[in-house]
Amino acid sequence: MMKRIVVGMGLAVLAAAQPQPGAEGRQQLTMHFRDPSMPRKLVVEGGTGSLTIRGYQGQDAIIEYTGREISGANGRGPGRRNEPPAGMHRIGESRGLDITEEDNTVRVNSQGIFGGTARDMVIQVPAQTSVNVKTMFGGSMTIENISGDIEAENFNGQVTITNASGSVVAHSMNGKILVSLDRVAPDKSMSFSTFNGDIDVTLPADTKARFKMRTDFGEIYTDFDVKMEANAAPVVEESKDKSGKSRRRVRVDGTQTGTINGGGPEMQFTTFNGRILIHKK
To answer: What is the pLDDT of residues 52-78, one digit of tens each?
Structure first.
């Protein structure tokens, strides 16, 4: 059986908990995980505004959200709004929020990606919960105090992950990746990538890993003792154009690889325009 909360235009359907008003227009909802003794997962999709996911010592998922206008937005489309007609003013926030629980997975689907408003959210879950979050037009994304596996994708904004002790896959198209791990799972690969921004990752000093690092426009720095491996051999490609003339192309992959503390699971660090910083905690 699936539990579901649908919030939008003042409506709550099949609610596990009614929205509770808070200070400064903040609303709070609680969704129960079906079986606290089994693995739990949180999935968050869509929306605008900032997002914070925080591990705590409770048993439920607690979702707090606050709507706000985006400064200077006008017209139509993401991050824009129409100017009100003369002599009229806007009432309320009509963007939807869909929260479901099924098979010990809580899903939060924020539908507020159009108009001149953003929805800032803070979600608390038990620290052992695995987290999978993907936003398209959001602001900053922060995940902290989570010991489950983390998959985080922020299309347009920074990803910050602190006090984590599970595996991490973090990606941004346009934003910095900032990660600090308290413990590294000994048998799981990790990936940190962005198209435009720095990658800044802190690992425990005893981490065993094989680094795979690439930046097209930036530098790579670390205070780990990295045993570098030989670069991959150039790739030679033979082809012919439309007139039948032969063409040869040689490609040299700029990826750098190396191991720390004798090697271990692979960690990928990839940015097109930015630095890669790998710190020893």
So the answer is: 999 999 999 999 988 766 554 444 444
